[in-house]
């Protein structure tokens, strides 16, 4: 019989060390890594499984030793080795937990704890709170309090400055209530759905993909005994989740035994649920409408008038900020998934044959994290790319799309989004609509993972063509030629007499539908009429299919001279989820620092002055009538200069007042300690300078509006040292 140490040594070397020689990368399940990467999640799961097998084998060996009458010393040695193995298993489990949570050193607080600290601070300081709170609230609806409103207002003001004013865009404001015919044309009535499942006993509803996603993430994060192969399978499910059909989602839910989270009851098969809020326009109920799920359609239907307003010239862009509504099945994740939210959308109309941009050179040298589809499909991670290089290599489809990607990057980073936690991810082929030329999402990393906050898409001419077909109004642009050009032109000539006899009062709509056919549709109809003599033809405005006979329409190609080219413009659409951007900004701006005594952690939001809810606080060092008058004088001068400010004349200690304003993200604090000069404290460095009373407003305005930096101010004004700054 082999001794216990021999059994243990054999098992350990064969099962553990051999595994570590072929460790697997977490990013790419197929890519082999060096031994230095042995701490990846995949290799740790394999190591843990092997360690458990070794422990099981050692337990069996100990039982064999006892059965065979081995000496007490030999059994004690084997038990001691088993206990050492268990300690090693615990160590691997701890490493695996750290790897899953992203806390490799075991020192940072968990994502959940960090998120809770942020949200608790935001709600306590009234940045946002659940709506209708005294009535227990409604999921997916939130109220913005005073500081939240101020942050949102500042973000939108900068958005207008950065895009609408600097790009000379045409801003519109369209109704939230949208007639059904508009959203029928856009495809929202038929296709704006999520897959839902119901608790078969209680009727409670859940979003099917969320249940599957939660199951996979829970197993990956909490089931340490999960095998590496099973973990790889669950990661693959997460990767393709958005591409699963209803049948595939249902099959996975059944395979994994997923039940209703609240009751553990069985679930129905997934079925589509339209996310739009339906309403009736007018008292008769005869006209159906919807609360708009996006703002873009209001711009598309106004294209003809906007094009005229712009002097019948392309390219041009229209922009809109407004509320949108989506009846989410199971809203969660705070401000990230809500039922009413603010969108800021741009529709940049451009000639499909010329997608260059005159200001492209201003952004072409920008370098930031990009995640092209090839890298995603090969299991690699996002990498820093030069935007101009991405265009020249064909990674980004065209200059105009790239220009807006660059402008979005500048917008987000100037707001205060961490550039190392911002990436631009290209849509995979299965994510893009058939008509789209290229799509990228600006994704921001938060405690919830990577969150899509801005979509930048080249939607080709789909939207304008859809509304042209449905409305019968040509949403087109013209290019006038310097000299007439001879072109081969498709000529569609409806025979109105024959159509009038066949369709009577509907003749006009059939004629318009025939004339609106594109070249492929018309030639297909011509071929069918020549072989069969008649063809079925869908008339969108009638919402039915009619029979067109050969005698009703003439379709031919003719050579003719043209003085202009008529075409449907393409549209590049950047769409901003303002609430999502703001929430990610909250997380990226939040940190904690110890109080001077070191007995507590103080919360701080490091908002840039650009978006800070209050730019400056003013308070007297002590309660003193003269100091209070100076504080009021400074406050009035700040207000006159357009600088938001808040006075605090309470008797609270100066340290506590600093802490209160730091927690609101106020970048500057003015402390009145004399009648001629005061101190200005900067929030993050806690540095102070001394400034004359009549200069305060100008200093705060210059640094708040970016005319100079705090470092510039420190060079210009004398530093002030005070223990109170650290309190």
Layout of strands and helices, then pairs:
Elements: H1 4-20, H2 41-67, H3 72-101, H4 111-124, E1 128-130, E2 142-144, H5 146-165, E3 170-171, E4 177-179, H6 180-186, H7 188-191, E5 193-198, E6 205-207, H8 208-222, H9 228-239, H10 246-255, E7 271-274, E8 278-281, E9 287-291, H11 296-301, H12 303-309, E10 316-325, E11 340-350, E12 367-371, H13 373-377, E13 383-386, H14 387-392, H15 399-415, E14 422-426, E15 438-446, E16 449-458, H16 462-471, E17 477-494, H17 496-503, H18 507-515, H19 519-532, E18 534-539, E19 544-549, E20 553-567, E21 570-577, H20 578-589, E22 590-594, E23 601-605, E24 616-620, H21 625-640, E25 645-647, H22 654-663, E26 668-672, E27 677-682, E28 688-692, H23 696-704, H24 710-716
Helix pairs in contact: 1-2, 2-3, 6-16, 8-9, 8-10, 17-18
Brief characterization of the structure:
It is built from 24 helices and 28 strands.
Task: Give me some keywords for this one.
727 residues; 40% helix; five-stranded mixed sheet; alpha+beta; 24 helices; 24% strand; nine-stranded mixed sheet
Strand order of the largest sheet: 3-10-11-21-16-15-14-12-13
Low-pLDDT residue spans:
1-39, 104-108
Kindly report the average pLDDT value: 87
Number of strands: 28
């Amino acid at each position: 019989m082999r001794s216990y140490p021999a059994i243990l040594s054999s098992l350990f070397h064969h099962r553990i060390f051999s595994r570590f020689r072929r460790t697997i990368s977490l990013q790419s399940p197929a890519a082999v890594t060096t031994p230095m990467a042995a701490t990846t999640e995949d290799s740790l799961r394999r190591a843990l499984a092997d360690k458990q097998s070794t422990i099981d084998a050692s337990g069996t060996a100990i039982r064999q030793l006892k059965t065979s009458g081995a000496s007490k010393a030999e059994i004690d040695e084997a038990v001691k080795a088993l206990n050492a193995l268990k300690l090693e298993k615990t160590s691997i489990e701890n490493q695996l937990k750290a790897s899953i949570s992203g806390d490799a050193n075991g020192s940072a607080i968990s994502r959940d704890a960090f998120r809770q600290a942020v949200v608790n601070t935001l709600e306590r300081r009234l940045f946002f709170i659940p709506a209708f709170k005294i009535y227990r609230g409604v999921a997916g609806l939130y109220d913005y309090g005073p500081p939240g409103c101020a942050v949102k207002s500042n973000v939108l003001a900068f958005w207008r400055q950065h895009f609408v004013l600097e790009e000379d865009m045409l801003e519109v404001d369209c109704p939230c209530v949208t007639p059904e015919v508009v959203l029928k044309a856009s495809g929202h009535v038929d296709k704006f759905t999520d897959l839902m499942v119901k608790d078969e006993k209680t009727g409670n509803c859940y979003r099917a993909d969320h249940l599957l996603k939660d199951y996979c993430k829970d197993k990956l994060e909490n089931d340490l005994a999960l095998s590496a192969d099973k973990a790889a399978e669950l990661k693959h499910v997460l990767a393709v989740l958005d591409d699963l059909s209803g049948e595939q989602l249902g099959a996975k839910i059944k395979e994994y035994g997923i039940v209703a989270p609240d009751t553990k009851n069985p679930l129905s098969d997934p079925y589509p649920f339209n996310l739009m809020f339906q309403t009736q326009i007018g008292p008769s109920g005869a006209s159906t409408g919807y609360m708009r799920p996006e703002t873009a359609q209001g711009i598309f239907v106004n294209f003809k008038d906007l094009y005229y307003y712009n002097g019948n010239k392309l390219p041009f862009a229209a922009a809109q900020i407004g509320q949108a509504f989506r009846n989410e099945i199971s809203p969660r994740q705070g401000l990230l998934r809500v039922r009413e939210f603010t969108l800021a959308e741009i529709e940049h109309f451009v000639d499909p044959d010329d997608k260059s941009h005159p200001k492209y050179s201003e952004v072409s040298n920008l370098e930031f994290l990009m995640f092209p589809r090839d890298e995603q499909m090969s299991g690699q991670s996002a990498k820093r790319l030069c935007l101009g290089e991405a265009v020249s290599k064909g990674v980004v489809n065209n200059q105009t799309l790239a220009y807006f990607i660059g402008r979005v990057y500048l917008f987000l980073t100037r707001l205060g989004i961490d550039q190392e936690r911002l990436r631009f991810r290209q849509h995979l082929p299965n994510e893009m609509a058939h008509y789209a030329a290229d799509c990228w999402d600006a994704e921001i990393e938060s405690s919830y993972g990577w969150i899509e906050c801005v979509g930048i898409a080249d939607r080709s001419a789909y939207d304008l063509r859809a509304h042209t077909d449905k409305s019968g109004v040509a949403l087109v642009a013209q290019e006038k030629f310097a000299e007439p050009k001879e072109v081969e032109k498709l000529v569609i000539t409806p025979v109105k007499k024959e159509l009038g006899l066949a369709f009577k009062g509907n003749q006009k709509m059939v004629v318009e539908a025939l004339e609106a056919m594109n070249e492929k549709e018309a030639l297909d109809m011509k071929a069918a009429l020549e072989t069969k003599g008649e063809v079925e033809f869908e008339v969108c405005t009638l919402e039915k299919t009619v029979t067109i006979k050969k005698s009703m329409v003439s379709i031919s190609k003719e050579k003719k001279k043209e003085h202009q080219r008529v075409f449907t413009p393409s549209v590049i659409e950047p769409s901003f989820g303002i609430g999502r951007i703001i929430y990610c900004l909250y997380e990226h701006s939040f940190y904690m620092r110890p109080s001077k005594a070191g007995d507590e952690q103080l919360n701080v939001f490091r908002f840039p002055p650009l978006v800070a809810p209050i730019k400056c606080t003013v308070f007297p060092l002590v309660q003193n009538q003269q100091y209070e008058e100076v504080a009021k004088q400074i406050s009035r001068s700040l207000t006159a200069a357009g600088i938001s400010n808040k006075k605090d004349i309470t008797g609270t200690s100066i340290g506590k007042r600093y802490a209160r304003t730091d927690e609101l993200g106020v970048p500057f604090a003015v402390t009145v300690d004399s009648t001629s000069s005061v101190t200005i404290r900067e929030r993050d460095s806690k540095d102070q300078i001394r400034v004359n009373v009549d200069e305060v407003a100008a200093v705060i305005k210059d640094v708040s509006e970016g005319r100079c930096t705090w470092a510039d101010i420190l060079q210009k004004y004398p530093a002030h040292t005070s223990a109170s700054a650290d309190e």
